[in-house]
Structures are given as structure tokens and as C-alpha cells.
Amino acid sequence: MALFSRAQSERTPLDGVDAVLADLDGVVYAGHKALPYAVDALTEAARTRRLGYITNNASRTDATVAAQLRELGLPAEPADVITSPQAAMRLLRERVAPGARILVVGGEGLVVEVEKAGYVVTRSADDDPAAVVQGFAPEVGWAQLAEAAYALAVPEDEGGIPWIATNTDWTIPQARGIAPGNGTLVSAVHTAVGRLATVAGKPETPIFAEAISRFGAGSPLFIGDRLDTDIQGAQSAGIPSVLVLTGIDRPKHLLAAPSTSRPDYIVGDLRELHMPYPRVRTRDRDGAVSVGDATVRISGADVEIVTEGTRPIDLLRAGAHAIWSSGRAIFGLRVPEQLYADPFHRP
Question: Largest Cα–Cα distance in the chain?
């Protein structure tokens, strides 16, 4: 992956892109509130490009999500929304023929997709289900998790049934703050049965393959707020990515990102999709890295801010590039607190 390519000088992140694929929670909205500048920036992008939405949140249907997006002022129809339950159905059809009974742990968004795919929904392990499909919903509690554990007691390689999770996000941003996500619920079942679920949503590739196929995208760009699901998933799928600092992951997470989850672009908010993305300049004599008027270098074990510059986002970009280019893990470096500063919006 080419990070901060010199060819990006004077180019915006949207140049050459024919489909913008946006995550929802932490990118477009937090809870039911739009994040600053997201609606205007995405609406403008949609004037000349296909705009689609990819979400790991399995609690709602594509129609419900599209209706919320329209209420916020965004162009959106159900077909523009790719959900992790839809990706889960791609995996389920490979393992279980339609018509079978499926134990569903989750809410309406998952139930609707299971039924649309031709399966029969049950909530009880006593009904001899052919598989368990698990997704997030606020109402999921101990009773549903226990039914999943009962149904999954026998390992699949010993004749047990498949277990598909829509996603394993540890957290989900809400209007009131950060709440536990589906990964915590999947982990509870895993702890009980000692099995691992097959995952359909980000960072796995089925959900990205569905989006590319549905939109006929030749040069897509994915926008996310999480390194371990959004950015890692896009990288695995071969899609350039943008990390926007309006959601879960913060500057300290970005600076420590492993090579498998580093974005092609870093933006403070979605307005910057339409702005020229500054190129990275590396100084030969000491390896100092400059972005805009911010400069960072690594001297021994110290990450040094040479010039702070006028834009915090450029300082963060320079710091990230300097650390990533060093080939050294961040825990082996002394990083100034100023690079960890977080003036960016969060839910």
C-alpha cells in the first residue's frame, strides 16, 4: 500500500474515485445525530460519484438506515446500504441450504435478512437449528446468549452446527458515548463454548465484495473511523481508505497502527475529502518528515517535533508518517504528548 504518495500532491482524496463507501457510526452520525460537516461533504461527493454506506451494525434494516440518512439530508435508498447481516447471508448460503431453521441472536435487522434469504427464524436451541447467526441489537441479553451457547455446544469439526457473526466490533459509538458492541456479545458466547465464529462484516472481506459488486465500483474509496475493522478491512479488500477522526480511534491509536491497518488518508472531518491533500516531504540530511508546515523527525528513540505548524491534522500526519516509515514499534519510541493531543471532534 502506498501511503501518502507524492503523486497525491495537489489532489483531493476524491480524485479518480467513482464510488464513495462510507461507514456510518462515527463517520456519518453518532446515535441519531449527524456528525459535523458529514452530510454536506457526502452530499457534495454524491453529485458526481456513487455513494454507498457500509455498516457493521446489525440491529436495523437497510430500509430503516436509509430512512434515517434521508432525515439527516443525505441521498439514500435501501439498495445504497450494505449491512453486515447481508454479508452474513452470503456466508450462510455457502453452508446451509435455504429453508433450514436458523437460531438468530439479534434484532430486526438480522431477522429480516435471514427471512429474506429463505430461512426460518428460531430463538430456541431446542428447535434443532441448522446454524447460529449472531448480530448486535440493544435488546440482546443473557437469555439469547445462553440459547446460542446451548446450540453451539458441539464443535463444528465434531458434527456441530456453523456459527456466523455479523461482526466483532468491540464498541459502538452512541450519542451518549461509547457502548459495548457485538464483539463483546460474541466473546461471551465464545467464552462459554470455546468456539470461534466465522465473521461476515468488517474487517473481513465479504461485506466489501458485496459493496463493490452492487455498485459496480472500479475505483472505490472507503471512509471509516476504526483502524481494526474499517481500515484493516479496506486494506484486505484492496480498497484505498480514509480514517476520519470523528469516531472511535484517536491520534494515539493512529500513531501506533500496525502496517495492516494504516489509512491512505487522515482527515479531521469530512470537509477535507474535498481539499487538496498535502504531500509528504522527507528531508535527506536527517530524515525529517514535513506535511504542510509541520515537521517531525526521529532521533534515536525520540520522536521530535521540529515545527508544530498551523494545522493539528498536518502535525498528526507528519508524526504518523515518520513513525510508520521508521519501521519501529511505537512502544520503543519516546513520543511527545503534543502528538497525542486530540483537538478533533469525537461523539
Answer: 71
- DSSP assignment, residue 113? H
pTM, rounded to two decimals: 0.86
Number of DSSP helices (H) and strands (E) in the chain, helices first = 11, 19
Name the helix (H) or strand (E) containing 87. Answer: helix 84-95
CA 263 – CA 336 distance, rounded (Å): 22
Q: How far is it, in rounded angstroms, from Cα 105 to Cα 163? A: 11
Residue 187 sits in a domain of what CATH number? Answer: 3.40.50.1000
Q: Assign 158 to helix, strand or coil.
A: helix
Residue 1, in any domain of the structure: no
In a domain, 241, yes or no: yes
Domain housing 312: 280-340
Q: Is residue 156 a contact partner of residue 196, using CB atoms and an 8 Å limit?
A: no
pLDDT digits (tens, 9 = 90+) for 235-251: 999 999 999 999 989 99
Non-local (6+) Cβ contacts of 186 within 8 A are 134, 165, 168, 197
Nine-digit cell at 41?
Answer: 461533504
343, with CB counted inside 10 A (0-12, 13-18, 19+), is exposed
Contact assessment for residue 13 and residue 223, using Cβ atoms and an 8 Å cutoff = no
> Which grid coordinates are listed for 118?
429463505
Sorted by sequence, the CB contacts under 8 Å of residue 122 that are 6+ apart come out as: 101, 102, 103, 104, 129
Q: List, by residue number, the catalytic residues.
A: 23, 25
Give domain status of residue 347, yes or no.
Answer: no
Residues 74 and 90 in one domain: no
pLDDT tens sequence across 131-140: 999 999 999 9
H/E element holding 38?
A: helix 38-45
